[in-house]
Design a protein that fits this description.
The chain is an alpha+beta fold and 59 residues long. The chain has a single domain (4-48), classed as YegP-like (Double Stranded RNA Binding Domain, 2-Layer Sandwich). It has 1 helix and 3 strands. A 3-stranded antiparallel β-sheet has the order 1-2-3, with helices on one face. β1 and β2 (13-19) form a beta hairpin. The chain is globular. The relative contact order is 0.20.
Length: 59
């Protein structure tokens, strides 16, 4: 199964998770005041997901 985004309404607003193919949550968003804002957040992650890795572990 491919990764997917889940969008939920919570008491704090709207939040999304990025869920791996094995069902594990690998990222959780901040809370958004609107569904449209959360959907824009998902789109921003999709557009930037192929960003390079900045390894700051020092090794």
């Amino acid at each position: 199964m491919a990764a997917r985004y889940t969008l939920k309404k919570t008491s704090a607003g709207f939040r999304f998770n990025l869920v791996a193919g094995n069902g594990e949550i690998i990222a959780t968003s901040e809370s958004y005041t609107s569904k449209a804002g959360a959907l824009k957040g998902i789109e921003a992650v999709r557009n930037n997901a192929d960003a390079p890795v900045d390894d700051q572990t020092g090794s």
